[in-house]
Write a structure and sequence with these properties.
Mean pLDDT: 92
Strand order of the largest sheet: 12-13-14-18-15-17-16
Oligomer: single chain
CATH superfamily of the largest domain: Metalloenzyme, LuxS/M16 peptidase-like
Number of domains: 4
Largest sheet: 7 strands, mixed
Distance between the termini: 24 Å
Number of strands: 23
Shape: globular
Helix content: 40-55%
CATH architecture of the largest domain: 2-Layer Sandwich
């Protein structure tokens, strides 16, 4: 429930112009109804036709409002809102809303940052809306804050600290911590300090709560299916009596960093992560867009960032310089517009990457982008204009929460779309070049170098001096021209229309001319996006050890190889410009190629997919570069105690021949280009053994024609890849490591056993059982005993495997390990107690709600349809989940759980603090 970053807010809404001409103000979406009560409480209602209701309660209090002795109190109060209130005592809020399918985490949660606390509740309909209003009203001044509750929650918060503060936290987080050094943000981490948390008591927390939870600092956002007049009247009745010391609504304030602040020069990355560089460019004071012209200025900034990113990425690829990714973004720097260019790479390539990027930036500064690059970027922006509108309740609610960070409500969608279309007509090549020159000449810049732990920092200053010296020199002109990509149409076209069979639910199936089965689902998705999945059984379970290692190298080799007579960069540019995303993927027992595209470009996307499958020619030079990168990355991961512990765990459970056994550096070093080609031929060479799954807003007739034209005559001679059965070591074992760099102990207990093959009823029952037992485990570990902030239980049988794996984890204070050890028998006994009717009904509603939500998400639904059809579960369960769920009673669930810990092979692994780790 605690967060250290507010990334999406700043990434989406930062601009860097200190003075802009006035123009038409940005208009608030007219569907919002807002009002302020006499006590200063504000509410904002946004009715949307449908059933789901999204609620956000926003309180203007965070860690920056705390006194030194109150460190962590804002976050502590957030926890206590779930722990007990006047109408929902003793954690009963979770049970109350679980009866309608609400789950802790995705549906009911909260977050505390530096200046706000936001409570979230997602409801399937308005049936519990009155109770939700009552709970939010309780949060205002009805927390019980009993002393026993406070004492019990201290361990939970420390558990959250252990969960969030790993020594191998990402280098981005470490850089962020260093960036904020000597600022209020560095000194006011929302989770607080050990001293203040241990000293916390009910009286002190209540004093903080009474001071800051005032009506004029609180706003309520409700979005979705409800009667507006009825809800407004209920809100006014409930919240008009909320205490306040000032009836004027308080604006949310952001404490800015120093305007001259620059990134640090050098930081260490955690073990197991790649080296990196971060070039930060400080545009000065941050001003959110308030007018349409300012909004177009913001989009111009985005255009510039994409232009820089595109040039740097493609030039690294053209030079065959291995790298682990390059991107541009805005940094979390409150009050500032701080833009950064980030490149990750292998340590041995640091000097080469720095030299190349400095030269390319100088070239951009002095020569600008080419006409071809400008046209490419403009095409890309034109392809994602539809993404600028929110249409689901959760999206509207999240957008409102983000905008209220800046004391505004979301913009009218039609105005935004029209303004974006105007931006596309106004943006010009000369202006973009001028902005790039300003970025790379005038604005303050600083360079951070990220070194993997245990690397020497010797030479860092010299490298930075060389970088800026190269950047200062005149840049060479680079002639970047993209060839016009003309993907030929299929040589063979269907001679007759196939006979389709309706499966109901606007689902149709037929056999294409190449004897490949196709399945199409018509869905009026408001995002106007089409999705295609080519799926087959096989995956890692069909590969030997060297082939499994080859897969990690294969993806980039496919992306970097020419397709027929089309250069790889030109082909990828064509895909990007048309908003086409094509991704091969290999999973445990299946593999696929997925594609997404805006529906109006579906024919072109299908043709590109066909051409790629038929004509990609894997490139030896790309293989050599990618292998070097992967081997270096795996070597770096070997330095991490967490990765080493995970590999040891897997090695304890799975023998070397098992497809789940851990791979070594030697496995990757031994991969040859022949291995990669063999894996590609084995998994992806043609459509043999694949089925085709498509979701689109196309009509069934039109979609059938398009799918047959472009996919119906691809060769389908590849033999089926038969997945091998998962093997595991048959003797129970225990692993103990004293390698944790923090003062915490991690325990994982895994039980494995053979089970009969599953059908759809068993799959659903297994899902429901997991929900019941996870709730029980959370109650034992977190609510009752305060062992762990985020205890994890899972028991799953993978598709087609005939093996069930049950996992229990605990991340705890080392001094409580023996206490927990003594409790494991009782914990297992509690977990397998007969399932109650209430538990069964709650799990049933949660599962049904999740599946019904899936039906509004075309991207995830196509994957679910592919999975269910591939493994013979049928698709009726996706469209009519209640019919399956009704047949699962609590006796069925009890029987499933009863066998989890009997007749199994058990493995236990414990990671304790290293001997040098100091005790708190």
């Amino acid at each position: 429930m605690f967060a250290r970053l507010i990334g999406p807010i700043l990434i989406l809404f930062i601009v860097g112009c200190s003075s802009l001409p006035t123009s038409t103000p940005i208009a608030v979406d007219p569907n919002w109804t807002s009002d302020t009560l006499p006590n200063g409480f504000q509410y904002h209602l946004y009715p949307i036709e449908g059933t789901e209701v999204e609620m956000r309660l926003i309180v203007n209090v965070g860690s920056l409002q705390e006194q030194e002795s109150q460190r962590g109190y804002a976050h502590f109060i957030e926890h206590m809102a779930f722990n007990g209130t006047e109408h929902f005592p003793d954690n009963s809020v979770f049970q109350e809303f679980a009866t309608v399918g609400v789950q802790f985490g995705p549906d009911i949660n909260a977050i505390t940052d530096y200046s706000r606390t936001v409570y979230k509740l997602s409801l399937p309909d308005d049936g519990k809306l009155s109770d939700a209003i009552k709970w939010f009203r309780d949060i205002g001044d009805g927390l019980t804050l009993r002393e026993d509750q406070v004492t019990g929650e201290i361990d939970v918060i420390f558990g959250e600290w252990r969960f969030d503060n790993r020594a191998d936290a990402s280098w981005q987080l470490k850089l962020y911590d260093t960036l904020l050094e000597n600022s209020p943000y560095a000194e006011r981490d929302p989770i607080g300090t050990e001293a203040t948390l241990l000293a916390a008591n009910s009286d002190d927390l209540r004093a903080f709560y009474d001071t800051w939870y005032q009506a004029n600092r609180i706003q309520l956002v409700v979005v979705g299916g409800f009667d507006e007049k009825t809800l407004a009247a209920e809100i006014e009745t409930q919240f008009s009596s909320l205490r306040t010391e000032d009836d004027r609504p308080e604006h949310h304030e952001i404490v800015p960093l120093d305007k001259d602040y620059r990134y640090p020069l050098t930081v260490f990355a955690p073990q197991g992560q790649s080296s990196a560089l971060v070039l930060s460019i400080n545009e000065g004071g941050y001003i959110p867009p308030k007018t349409l012209s300012q909004q177009r200025e913001m989009w111009t900034e985005w255009f510039v960032l994409d232009a820089i990113e595109q040039r740097l990425t493609e030039q690294l690829d053209r030079r065959s310089i291995a790298h682990n990714g390059l991107y541009s973004s805005y940094a979390f720097a409150p009050g500032l517009s701080l833009f950064e260019i980030v490149a990750e790479f292998n340590a041995q390539d640091r000097a080469e990457v720095l030299d190349a990027i400095a030269g390319d930036l100088a070239s951009l500064r002095d020569n600008g982008i080419t006409d071809s690059e400008f046209a490419s970027l403009l095409e890309r922006f034109e392809s994602w204009g539809y993404l600028l509108d929110d249409y689901l309740p959760i999206e509207v609610a999240e957008s409102a929460s983000e905008e209220l960070y800046y004391n505004a409500l979301p913009q009218d969608g039609q105005q935004r779309l029209e303004n974006f279309e105007q931006f596309l007509t106004e943006v010009n090549h000369e202006d973009i070049d001028q902005r790039i020159r300003e970025y790379l000449t005038v604005l303050p810049k600083s360079l951070s170098l990220i070194y993997v732990k245990n690397e020497s920092l010797a030479g860092a200053e010299r490298l930075k001096s060389q970088f800026f010296a190269k950047l200062a020199k005149a840049g060479d002109a680079v002639d970047v021209e993209y060839s016009d990509v003309n993907i030929p149409q299929p040589a063979i076209l269907p001679t007759r229309k196939p006979t389709t069979k309706s499966l109901g639910n606007e689902l149709y199936t037929w056999t294409m001319p190449n004897n490949v089965k196709a399945l199409f689902h018509h869905m009026d998705d408001l995002s106007l996006t089409s999705h295609v999945v080519l799926q087959a059984r096989g995956g890692f379970a069909s590969l030997n050890r060297s082939e499994r290692a080859a897969v990690d190298i294969l993806y980039e080799v496919i992306r970097g190889s020419d397709v027929g007579d089309i250069d790889a960069l030109d082909f990828n540019h064509y895909l990007n410009a048309n908003g086409i995303a094509i991704e091969p993927a290999v999973y445990g027992r299946s593999h696929n190629i997925s594609m997404s595209v805006q529906s109006e470009n579906l024919p072109d996307a299908l043709n590109a997919l066909r051409f790629l499958i038929e004509n990609v020619s894997l490139d030896q030079a790309i293989f050599d570069r990618e292998k070097e990168r992967v081997v270096s990355r795996v070597k770096a991961m070997n330095t991490s105690p967490y990765d080493a512990f995970e590999r040891a765990q897997l090695g304890m459970i799975y023998p070397p021949q098992s497809y789940d056994s851990p791979l070594t550096v030697a496995d990757y070093q031994d991969v040859t280009f022949t291995d990669v080609k063999r894996v590609y031929d084995k998994l992806f060479r043609d459509l043999g053994a694949f089925n085709v799954y498509v979701i689109s807003d196309y009509s069934a007739d039109a979609a059938t024609d398009q799918i047959n034209v472009y996919l119906g005559n691809i060769k389908a001679t590849r033999p089926a890849t038969l997945p091998k059965t998962l093997t595991f070591n048959q003797q129970s074992d225990e692993l103990k490591k004293y390698t944790s760099p923090e003062d915490r102990t991690y325990i994982e207990i895994v039980d494995v056993s053979r089970v009969p093959q599953r059908d759809i009823k068993t799959i659903f029952a297994e899902d429901m059982m997991n929900r019941v037992l996870q709730a029980r485990y959370t109650k034992i570990m977190r609510e009752k005993n305060g062992f762990d902030y985020d205890p994890y239980f899972a028991s799953w049988s993978r598709d087609g495997d005939g093996v069930v794996t049950t996992t229990l984890t605990a991340l705890i204070s080392p001094d409580r390990e023996q206490e927990l050890e003594n409790m494991w028998p009782d914990i297992r006994k509690t977990l397998v107690q007969p399932v109650t009717k209430q538990e069964r009904d709650n799990a049933a509603r949660q599962l049904e709600r999740d599946i019904m939500n899936l039906n509004s998400d075309s991207h995830h639904l196509v994957g679910a349809i592919a999975r269910y059809d591939t493994w013979g579960y049928g698709t009726d369960g996706l469209f009519y989940p209640a019919t399956v769920i009704r047949g699962i009673d609590r006796q069925h669930l009890s029987q499933l759980s009863k066998g989890l810990f009997t007749g199994t092979v058990r493995y236990k692994s414990v990671m304790r603090p290293a001997p040098s780790t100091p005790s708190p």
